[in-house]
Design a protein that fits this description.
The chain is mostly beta strands and 525 residues long. Helix content is 7%, strand content 39%. The protein contains two helices and 35 strands. Strands 1, 3, 4, 7, 8 and 9 form a six-stranded mixed β-sheet that branches. It starts with a strand and ends in a 24-residue tail after the last strand. InterPro entries: Ig-like_dom, Ig-like_dom_sf, Ig-like_fold, Ig_sub. Keywords: Membrane, Transmembrane, Transmembrane helix. It comes from Salvelinus namaycush.
């Protein structure tokens, strides 16, 4: 009989038993004589402890309810006890009686251990679990009560078939064996499988289960290649290519290929491939991962290279874009914080007193027309210096006088005069088509009137407001191109001076002659 048996409370237990009768006994065992079996717990010396006898097959009433299912005449003493309780946990000895033959096996005993919960079943794998190859898994659970064996069920991540059977173990105990067969995939790797044993105990069931993680062998899967940085790189820069893959056992070799024409050419080995980009390195790359079960090929990645000129053009583009963004940002700030001062009041006829302006009188917009057809050139010190540098400077001077004020001198500018009118002020002089040379972007001048060149009429127009000290609105009329230049207001002489250069296509420098004071936020009376 076995050394130990585990059993559930409320269930039954079968004790496999065989008698080996030795010849040293003075009486000989006679199988033709009725034979009985006796079970003694704790100690074989039942003479001193008669209460240790818990079962005697010759008696109709015993302390333990049970029966000997073996054939005693053939020395088979297999016994079943029913309704096991935790008090059954003990050591048991067997005694055979066949008058006059009687013998107790004092050397061999069985330990019975009673549990409230069943022990877990055991899962075993027959061979390697490899993708694409059918495999069988076995689950076994002890059956201490063969009359009510456990029922085994499987939980797997795929379809399967099962086969259950009650089998005898080498120690003559019983167990239930369930075999499941399925074809694993690499997707089943590291997935859990479960075998559950359900033991019927009276009107209820007791369950136990065993979880196991599948270890599926498979060739490299999900192989992919990546490139860093991903953007096109200029010749001479460093690029890193990385290969990744999932495999069991792990990948043992990574190989890199470059597609040249229609044929892949091996260029490197290893998980990473780093190179300094040359003119011939551009193109498609892929990697191959390999282990003992096969290989996997990655996607193609594009290595786009560009020359230094393209790289410089790209940098120029981004620098220009950044400059433009900064200019727009500053312009927006200027728009919402634009302190404008009044350049001059509305012109009045000489000798007339200026009329008082009503509080609620709306602001009247005036403009001055500058005709360059007769404007004469006056050389300035700055202009002379510019000619030395191959660039000739010219300027136009606009004289705006308030009513009642003495008309200021024109600083000896021959051929340059101001013609007063209700709304027009013309300054004559300069060269023909001079204004057409000054097309470009408008420079926003704080607190200055706007100056526009009208190509069709060959006029330089200066816009300002009548009210002295008020903010100068920026009036834009038609599709005029702004004169790219500086405009200065000389407070002492009440003159508006416009400076510009004659050279076509060159940046227009800001020439300053004399001690001109730039008009800043406001012009006071």
């Amino acid at each position: 009989m076995p050394d130990r048996l585990d059993v559930l409370t409320g269930s039954c237990i079968q004790i496999p038993c065989t008698c080996n009768i030795l010849d040293k006994n003075k009486y000989t065992f006679n199988s033709t004589i009725p034979t009985f079996g006796v079970w003694i717990k704790e100690s074989p010396d039942f003479g001193l402890h008669p209460d240790n006898v818990i079962f005697n097959s010759s008696e109709t009433v015993n302390r333990y309810q049970g029966k000997i299912t073996g054939n005693m005449s053939q020395k088979n003493c297999t016994t079943v006890f029913f309704n096991v309780t935790t008090s059954y946990t003990n050591k048991y000895f067997f005694r055979i009686e066949s008058q006059p033959f009687r013998a107790t096996d004092t050397e061999k005993s069985v330990d019975i251990v009673v549990w409230d919960l069943p022990s877990s079943p055991i899962i075993t794998v027959s061979g390697e679990v490899k993708e694409g190859t059918p495999v069988s898994l076995n689950c076994s659970a002890v059956a201490p009560c063969p009359e009510h064996p456990p029922e085994l069920t499987w939980t797997l991540p795929t379809q399967f078939t099962t086969e259950n059977q009650l089998q005898e173990n080498p120690d003559q105990t019983k167990s239930v064996l369930s075999t499941v067969t399925f074809t694993p995939s690499y997707l089943h790797h590291e997935k859990n499988i479960t075998c559950t044993a359900v033991y019927p105990v009276g009107a209820s069931n007791k369950t136990a289960e065993h979880n196991m993680m599948l270890n599926v062998s498979f060739s490299p899967k999900d192989t992919s290649a990546s490139i860093s940085p991903a953007d096109p790189e200029s010749v001479g820069s460093c690029v890193n290519l990385t290969c990744s893959s999932t495999a069991n056992p792990p990948v043992t070799n990574f190989t890199w290929f470059q597609i040249s024409g229609d044929k892949p050419i091996q260029v490197a080995t290893g998980l990473h491939y780093s190179l300094n980009v040359t003119a011939v390195d551009g193109g498609l790359y892929f990697c191959e991962a390999r282990n003992s079960h096969g290989c996997g090929k990655s996607n193609d990645v594009q290595l786009a290279s560009k020359g230094p000129e393209e790289h410089n053009n790209s940098m120029v583009f981004w620098v220009a874009a950044g400059t433009l963004a900064a200019f727009l940002f500053i312009s927006l700030i200027s728009l919402f914080n634009f302190p404008v001062g009044t350049v001059c009041a509305n012109q009045a006829t000489a000798g007339e007193e200026p009329e008082e302006r009503a509080e609620d009188q709306s602001e009247e917009i005036h403009y001055g027309d500058i005709d360059f057809s007769k404007l004469q050139t006056k050389e300035t010190p700055a202009a002379a210096q510019d000619r030395v540098q191959g660039q000739e400077s010219e300027y136009a001077e606009v004289n705006v006088t308030r009513r009642g004020a003495q008309e200021p001198p024109l600083n000896n500018l021959d051929g340059l005069y101001a013609q007063e009118g209700a709304s027009d002020l013309q300054v004559l002089g300069s060269k023909e088509d001079m204004g057409s040379l000054y097309e470009g972007q408008t420079k926003t001048l704080f607190d200055l009137p706007k100056v526009f060149w009208e190509k069709e009429t060959q006029e330089l127009r200066v816009y300002f407001t009548q009210q002295m000290g008020a903010d100068l609105p920026q009036q834009v009329e038609g599709k005029l191109k702004a004169l790219e230049d500086r405009v200065f207001w000389e407070k002492e002489t009440q003159e508006l001076r416009v400076y510009f250069t004659q050279q076509v296509g060159a940046d227009l420098p800001h020439q300053v002659e004399g001690e001109l004071k730039a008009l800043e936020d406001r012009i006071s009376d």
